[in-house]
Amino acid sequence: MRPAIYLDRDGVVIENRDNYVLTWSQVELFPQALQALRFLSQTPFAIIMVTNQSAIGQGLMDRASADEINQRLIEEIKACGVRIDGVFLCPHSPKEGCACRKPMPGLLYDAATLLKLDLGR
């Protein structure tokens, strides 16, 4: 089993927006995040991006659009010689009370199961 580091998307990898990131044109990658990801890519840790996307649950965007934004972000990061080993998304609104919306651990458990990660490390 592999150790992992989990990173939030909005506010950590890309700039957070008060009205959500709804289109690719609104994505602004933090240069410092790219530097940190470059360093992490040289470690044995799996790099997992987790993100709450309540705009889906609120009907402001659909899941396909959110997945497209994440896919394009991963492609851009990989083009810089950096890796992301997985992206896990919660599409629910805060009112839904799901187990996958951070800070609940559902996304962490999903990633650990699918990617054989050691949560203790």
Describe the structure.
The protein has helices at residues 31-40, 54-57, 63-79, 106-115; strands spanning 4-8, 46-52, 86-90. The chain has 121 residues and is α/β, with parallel strands linked by helices. It is built from four helices and three strands; from the N terminus they run βαβααβα. It has a single domain (4-93, 104-115), classed as HAD superfamily/HAD-like (Rossmann fold, 3-Layer(aba) Sandwich). The chain is globular and about 40 Å long.
Protein topology:
Layout: E1 4-8, H1 31-40, E2 46-52, H2 54-57, H3 63-79, E3 86-90, H4 106-115
Parallel strand pairs: 1-2, 2-3
- The residue fraction in helices comes out at 25-40%
Largest sheet: 3 strands, parallel
Average pLDDT reading: 95
Question: Strand-residue fraction?
Answer: 5-15%
- Span between N and C termini? 9 Å
Any low-confidence stretches, pLDDT <50, length ≥5?
Answer: none
In one word, what is the shape?
globular
Task: Tally the helices.
Answer: 4
